[in-house]
Design a protein that fits this description.
This protein has 506 residues and is α+β, with helices and mostly antiparallel strands. The protein has 2 domains: 284 residues, FAD/NAD(P)-binding domain, CATH 3.50.50; 157 residues, 2-Layer Sandwich (Cholesterol Oxidase, domain 2). It contains 12 helices and 21 strands. The relative contact order is 0.20. The chain binds flavin-adenine dinucleotide and iron/sulfur cluster (SF4).
Length: 506
């Protein structure tokens, strides 16, 4: 069977009614929607097909992560990686597949924040929003992680949360064929994860969209995108131009504003690139009594949402050796800890950040991202670390808790960790991690209710950048829902035929 995508070589010159840039959570739904509406669609993706699956994390970093996995904030506090996927499927190829519905209160906030461009807000029909979300979840085959697929880390987190009486649940994931190998970040080796390359993109192609891989968009004008044909390591092998009546940027919350700024099409001090949220995650390790914490299972199969009203959730987190080596342990104690690595549990505390960063284009091929953690978020991070410590000390009888900070911090008792104040921490000390950039080209501020740029209506931005602010949960399902809704409206404006929510029953 011939593949549903093309990998062009030499020189590519094409024409279409609409060109979509980026094939991730959003771009796949945009291409599907516009093609189903009868529009002639080309989708351009910098990366390649996941059928060429990387064997090691190093290879994955080079081939399926944006900027070789070294994309970070710059001149910021804290400096942190802002990780993204690269390939047919975008970040859904490498994500942990956790699925959360948009909280109704967040949708209300989004309507308030976008009321300037649409009476009552861009998602004022909340019933329709959640009906689309139902369909997205069905198409993505979302379901709860069964107990049998919980990893050792998931199980200890679940037991600990239950002992404390904290609200918790097995994560809902889009992994209908999961066998629990815990390697989601390397692209699922078993086809168990229903990333958007599995069903959504092939459906878009069946509806008429043409998909080109290995096309890195570098130039942009109204009606024209251009760039380099690249190999899997990003090396230039040729060039392309595509003329189109309308352009949709779905390159993700970092690359979409980056492309617009690099092209000099937007006001450097304007709304495009502003408002970036990243939902930073901080790891809390613990040495537990003899348990096989390392027993394999779903990559991140368990969630504690006891403190969601305080804008934080805990998700089990894979432990990297570097996190352990960073702890202030030396000599015999370090040797002993490493020998007992199978007893080290890890939870990641994710906050719904109030701080806002900015994307300002690129320098030497690297995105310029700035993001400083503000005072309220610093206090929240302090509470995240203390609550994570409580989970392990009081829920699981940990002998120590390790806070993953620069230079590390070891707590031997809850009292010790509780004595820590936000003043003891500075943003520079935090080892933060972000893979959920959002809200950098928001509807209501930069774009209208169909994702069209307010100052440049021939170009739309429809992806994680479109969210008015962050979800406070892993965002892929919200990104897909928003993409579907904005592109349904865009299709109508561009003369496409009206569609039911999804043209074919799932
Ligand atoms: C490691 C990791 C784990 C995550 N875990 C979860 C999770 O468990 N649950 C969850 O809900 N969310 C998770 N997320 C976040 C979620 O995957 C993203 O929020 C979502 O995929 C964003 O969708 P998007 O379409 O905006 O961007 P993406 O899905 O990132 O897609 C953007 C695409 O655009 C392409 N692109 C960028 N620039 C160009 C260019 N110049 N030319 C051509 N193509 C370009 C990229 O290669 C990429 O394929 C995770 C993300 C990562 C990276
Ligand atoms: S845990 Fe393994 S089998 Fe399950 S979805 Fe992730 S990579 Fe695939």
């Amino acid at each position: 069977m011939s593949p549903w995508w093309t990998e062009p070589t030499g020189t590519l010159q094409e024409r279409a009614q609409v060109v979509v840039v980026g094939s991730g959570a959003a771009g796949s739904f945009v291409a599907l929607t516009l093609a189903e509406a009868g529009l002639d669609v080309i989708l351009l993706e910098e990366g390649f097909s996941p059928t060429r699956r990387p064997a090691t994390m190093r290879e994955a970093m080079q081939r399926v992560y944006a900027e070789g996995s070294f994309r970070t904030t710059m001149a910021s506090a804290p400096m942190m990686p802002v990780v993204g996927g690269r390939g047919l499927g975008g970040s859904t190829l490498v994500n942990s597949a956790l699925c959360f519905r948009t909280p109704p209160a967040t949708l209300d906030e989004w309507n308030e924040l976008s009321a300037a461009v649409s009476p009552g807000g861009v998602f004022a029909d909340t019933g329709a929003y959640f009906a689309v979300q139902d369909q997205v979840e069905t198409l993505m085959r979302v379901g709860p992680t069964p107990d049998a697929l919980l990893s050792g880390n998931d199980k200890v987190q679940k037991q600990a949360a239950r002992k404390l009486g904290w609200s918790e649940f097995n994560a809902r994931r889009n992994t209908p064929g999961c066998s629990g190998c815990g390697r989601c970040h390397l692209v699922c080796p078993h086809g168990g994860k229903n990333s958007v390359d599995r069903e959504v993109l092939p459906r878009a192609v069946a509806a008429g969209a043409r998909v080109f891989a290995g096309c890195r968009v570098e130039g942009l004008k109204e009606g024209l995108v251009s760039g380099s044909l690249v190999d899997e390591l990003g090396r230039t092998t040729g060039s392309f131009t595509v003329r189109a009546e309308h352009i949709v940027l779905s390159a993700g919350a970092i690359s979409t504003p980056r492309i617009l700024h690099d092209a000099g099409l937007v006001d450097p001090d304007g709304e495009v690139g502003r408002g970036l949220c990243v939902q930073p995650v901080h790891s809390i390790l613990a040495m537990l009594p003899d348990t096989q914490v390392f027993a394999p299972g779903a990559t991140q199969g368990h969630v504690v949402d006891e403190f969601v009203d305080d804008k934080m959730i805990f998700e089990t987190n894979p432990t990297l050796p570097a996190m352990v080596v960073n702890l202030p342990l030396v000599g015999r104690e370090l040797t002993e800890v490493l020998a007992n690595g199978h007893r080290i549990a890890n939870t990641g505390g994710l906050i719904r950040d109030e701080s806002r960063g900015r994307v300002r284009g690129s320098f030497n091929g690297v995105a310029r991202i700035s993001y400083d953690l503000g005072e309220a978020d610093m206090k929240r991070v302090c509470r995240v670390l203390q609550r994570g410590a409580r989970l392990w000390f009081e829920g699981a009888d940990a002998s120590w808790v390790g806070l993953v900070l620069h230079g590390g911090r070891l707590g031997r008792s809850m009292a010790e960790v509780e004595a820590m104040t936000p003043q003891d921490l500075s943003p520079h000390k935090l080892i933060s991690y972000a893979s959920h950039p959002q809200a950098s080209c928001s509807v209501g501020r930069a774009t209208d209710g169909a994702g069209q740029l307010l100052d440049l209506p021939g170009i739309s931005c429809i992806d994680a950048s479109s969210l008015p602010n962050n979800v406070g949960r892993n965002p892929q399902i919200s990104v897909m829902t928003v993409a579907r809704i904005l592109s349904l409206r865009l299709a109508e404006r561009l003369g496409g035929r009206p569609l039911p929510l999804l043209a074919e029953p799932v």
